[in-house]
Every structure is written in C-alpha cells, then in structure tokens.
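Observation: inputs received (chain + histidyl-adenosine monophosphate).
Thought: call the complex predictor directly.
Action: predict_structure
Action Input:
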Amino acid sequence: MTEANLAPAAKAPARLQAVRGMNDVLPDEAALWERFEGAVRRVLDLYGYRNVRAPVVEPTPLFVRAIGAATDVVEKEMYTFEDKLSGESLTLRPEATAGIVRAAIEHNLCYERGQRVWLTGPMFRHERPQKGRYRQFHQVDVEALGFPGPDVDAEQMVLLARLWRELGLADGIRLTINSIGDPAERRAHRAALIAYFERHEDALDADARRRLHANPLRILDSKNEAMREVIDGAPKLLDRLGPASRAHFDGLTALLDEAGLRFEVDPRLVRGLDYYNRTVFEFVTDRLGAQGTVAGGGRYDGLFEQLGGRPTPACGFAIGVERMVLMLKDAGRDAGRAPLAYVVHAGAAAAPLARRVAEMLRDAGHAVVLNAAGGSFKSQMKRADASGARFALVIGDDEAARGVVGVKPLREGGDQLALAAGELAPWLAAHARAGGG
Ligand code: HAM
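Observation:
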C-alpha cells in the first residue's frame, strides 16, 4: 500500500462524469428507445430489409474518400486517433454508409443481386452539443445497394412515412426532396453560378465575394437579407438537369404522387456529405427547434467505384434516433412496458411459493417483477404500485400454507381475491386482455 492509500479519508474521490455530448439512456427513457426500435424492425421487415452490423472503428481514409475531405464532418468533426500498435489512423464512424459500402465491396455482397440492408448503432461527431445534437448519437441506417431507381428512392420515402404513422407522429413530419444531378451537371451549374454572381458582384457582401470562386454554392446558404433577391434569382441546378437526371427526378415525383405521399420540392436542399447524386431528401419537423431533421438521405451511385468497387447504384437514408425519442417523449407517448404483475411476499414459507408463481407466470409469457428488497407488506405494496403493474400478487405464510395467492387489482379498483396458484396464469391472461394491458 502506498502512503496515499493509508492517509485518512479526508476527501471523497471526485465523481467521474460522462463525456460531454455523450448520453446515458436510463430505464424510463430506454423504454421509448425500445418502442422506436420495435417499430423500425417491424417496418423494415415489411419491405424486405435485412440487418447487418459493422465496426464502429474504420480506417480514416474510408471516411475522407467517401464523405469528402472538404466537408464539415471530415474537416472538423471526426474522432480520429492513431492506433498505438500499428500507427494506422483510425476514426470512430461519423455515419454508417461508408462502412456498409466498404463491407459490401469487401464481401462481394452485391455480386448476384441487389441487397436491402439496415444497421443501427452509435455514430460520433465532434459537434457543439445542443438539444437534438450530440457527440455520440444513434442512427438507424438503411441502404438499398445495387438498384438504379427511382422506384427504390420512392419506396424508402414511403417506408419512412409508414414508420411515422406507426409511431403516431405522421402529422408532425414533412418530406422535402431535391435532385442535385450528376457530377458533370454540378460542375456546369457551378460555372453558371460563378458567372451569375460575377454579374451581380455589387450586390454581394464581403463574405460572398470571398467565396465567389472557391465555393459559390455556399453563397446560397447566406442569411443576409440584403442578398435575398440576388440569391433567389440565381440559376437552380434543378432547372438545368440533363435528360437522365431529369427523367429520374420526374419518375420519383410521379411515384410519390401515386403513393399519395405529400412532399415539397426544395431546389436549395443540399446535404452535408459529398457522395450524393440525383435524389436527396429529408424528413423535417418543427417540434424540435433548430435540429429538426429527423431523417435524411439520398442516392449515391458513384460511391462503390470511389471506394474501389464495381459500379453499383444505391440509395439510402439514416434516422436520428435521439430526435425520434425526443418527439415520442414530447408527444407523451407512453412506452407501455410496465409488468403485468408485481409479487409481494413476506415469511419464510411464502418466498419459495412467490418464486414458483413468478416463474410459472413467466412460462405463460407474463412480465412479472418479484419483490427482492424485503420490507413490510405495506412498503412492498407501495413498490408494486410504483412499478406500474396492473396486479399485485400477495403471498404470506398463510397463503403459502393454503397454496393460494392473493390477487389485488392496482389500476381498476376491485377487491382482493384468492386464487389457487394453478389458476393464476389463465386468470391473468383473461384479465390482461380485458384491460388492454
Ligand atoms: P446525415 O444527414 O448526416 O446523413 O445524418 C442523418 C440523421 O442523423 C440526421 O438527419 C439527424 O437526424 C441525425 N444526426 C446527425 N448528426 C447528429 C448529431 N450530432 N446528433 C444527433 N443526431 C444527429 C447521414 O449520416 C447519411 N449516412 C445518411 C444516408 C444513408 N445517406 C445515404 N444512406
């Protein structure tokens, strides 16, 4: 033992805290996560998407090449470190698409046919934390690999609309779409933008003039009201698409109309990652303040080749799980995961019967919490109530001697009754149905 260890315990050790922007999810909230994840699994299943898992850590060049060296994510937000043994530069994934495409190429996943896959897990971006924006956050990422579209593009939006309905959030979320064309169309548009802003240079502020030749697209995002008019008059890529991109976009809007899905076309919608072409889309809500995009995605037909694979057209999106959970919480959605019964017991002979009864009910598929904290009947009944259970099952030495269990309804009133242990499961099954629990 060192001297420090022997010193009188003057000060309690400092408490450790979670890393800023990285959150714990405690049981009450986790129930909402599970509700969300359950709905996601059901809906993805309906459309034939299959689950995949991929590492949280990938080689840094994967993200630089896929997302783009000049994007905010790669320039400022990645958690990058050197592997102590190999010296290799590694990065905590800031998003999932790059890793999924890497895996698909590595394992020749799309060799024979297209693949619909999805993944969920933590992503990491070093952003300034605020409501709805964290440094460790979670996505449900969905990718259709090997489909030229636009039918899969539309199908993914229809799938998401179904998910919002399933969660009871459909009226709070709207769809915005755009086409950003193919690389050659974007180059031509960029040249047209520069020419246009050069003609209107007098109307530009200093910031815009500085960006004019380096990044004219950024001028379109300016919040300067004085430039509103000149920005509104700038050439739009959507009006200058080549015939193939145009046909793709018209095909998409026709399919959305056919599905009865409402959408807005926003010619200014661009996304923060460089791999997109043609279709881009976002589902947005007004209920979350500044961080209102709950899901975003689009087509990335060039990414496989960019990462050394064979040409493979693809389309996908990701949902921000924290943002969905915030919406569910705001909407007062109860996760509804309380146990059906809470077993209250006191006395040496009662305990084995309590354990047997709890296991018997679990055999029948009922969620049961067995009191494990001792205490008087009164304090145990308080715990039973706080658990949200519909019924308290009461077992004392007297019940144990008679082989019966007291059943006390906790939510709907009514007297306590005594049932033989063997009658409990069918009785609870009948009453769980009747009460909708
Ligand atoms: P993204 O737009 O960067 O796209 O992220 C998708 C969603 O993740 C956002 O709409 C938002 O809900 C959530 N999100 C992003 N950053 C944060 C953060 N710091 N805190 C909380 N939530 C956040 C992608 O990541 C693409 N990989 C989507 C995709 C898949 N495109 C094609 N396939």
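Thought: report the result.
Final Answer: The longest helix spans residues 27-46. The chain has two domains: 27-181+241-330, 341-429.
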